[in-house]
Amino acid sequence: MLLPSFNHARAALVLTMGNLMCGFIALVCITQERFMEASLLVLLAAVCDSLDGRVARRGNVASDMGKELDSLCDVVSFGVAPALLVYVQFFSQHMSIGALLAALFYVGCGAYRLARFNISHHTDYFVGIPITLAGIITALVSWIGSGLPGGIMIGVLLVLGCLMVSTIKVPKPLQRSVPEEEISL
């Protein structure tokens, strides 16, 4: 039996939407105070985010539309979800203006960083840390450090926000294409 040819564009879109769905479900988990699950979903979104571009490049179907859609999904999964995770997990018992402002700062920096990335033409490095990395770090610190003082978590949001909008050059990992044999969708 002949298998249909692999559709790279569709697979990349499914992975991008997987990123968004993980981010949205993480938000739902946060509202239910299921913080570990929310952290894991942010990490799963990072896996989807890592694969979507590779699949698109492998099939030579990378596009401006895909880049923009990926950034919109990243704002949810690595901007809003981690910021809300920290806010609700560490400050849900009392409204903290400082924590709220730190969360807003983190989200704003992440959105700015993505917009800057979308108009940049650097092929071998990122300017500022990627929002995906910031989201992963925030989710891991939230998960592992659930007993940390809230002030430390505010610091995490502020430092990561500053690193996202900084002008430091972060080398891009090798853009290894994923062989079709490794893709099982």
Describe the structure.
The chain has 185 residues and is mainly α. It has helices at 8-31, 35-58, 64-91, 97-119, 131-144, 150-165; strands at residues 125-127, 169-171. The protein has a single domain, classed as Up-down Bundle (Four Helix Bundle (Hemerythrin (Met), subunit A)). It is built from six helices and two strands, in the order H-H-H-H-E-H-H-E. The longest helix has 28 residues, at 64-91.
Structural class: mainly alpha
Q: Any idea what the CATH architecture is?
A: Up-down Bundle
Please report which band the strand proportion falls in: under 5%, 5-15%, 15-25%, 25-35%, 35-45% or over 45%: under 5%
CATH class wording: Mainly Alpha
Largest sheet geometry: 2 strands, antiparallel
Instruction: Specify the number of helices.
Output: 6
**What does the average pLDDT come to?**
88
The strand count comes to 2
- Binned, the helix content reads 55-70%
The helix-strand sequence is HHHHEHHE
Strand order of the largest sheet: 1-2
Radius of gyration: 17 Å
